[in-house]
Write a structure and sequence with these properties.
23% strand, globular, four-stranded antiparallel β-sheet, alpha+beta
Length: 95
């Protein structure tokens, strides 16, 4: 895995595409090797909530954080997607 990454959502791409591309880059694998993003988040809602220009119709900033393919993903209403590997051992995990 590579270092954490933050990217801007391009106006001609969906937020979901940006998430998948960034996670694949951090994991250093082909995006087609990832499981479907729809298995962990409602992709239609994600695209609608964070579509470029949607911040103009929201009264407040919105951030969404979830885990996908061993990475923590944060999508921010300002148009950025941040991806960081999640450590294998989490606090409180006594395996």
């Amino acid at each position: 895995m590579q270092e954490p990454k933050t990217v801007r959502v391009n106006s001609d791409e969906s937020v979901c595409f940006t998430v998948v591309d960034a996670v694949a880059d951090v994991r250093a694998i082909d995006p087609l090797e990832l499981s479907p993003l729809g298995a962990v988040v409602d992709t239609d809602a994600l695209d609608a909530l964070f579509a470029p220009g949607s911040e103009l119709t929201r009264p407040h900033d919105v951030d969404l954080t979830f885990e996908y393919e061993g990475c923590g993903v944060t999508v921010e209403s300002g148009g950025t997607v941040s991806v960081a590997p999640v450590s294998a051992a989490r606090p409180g995990d006594h395996r």
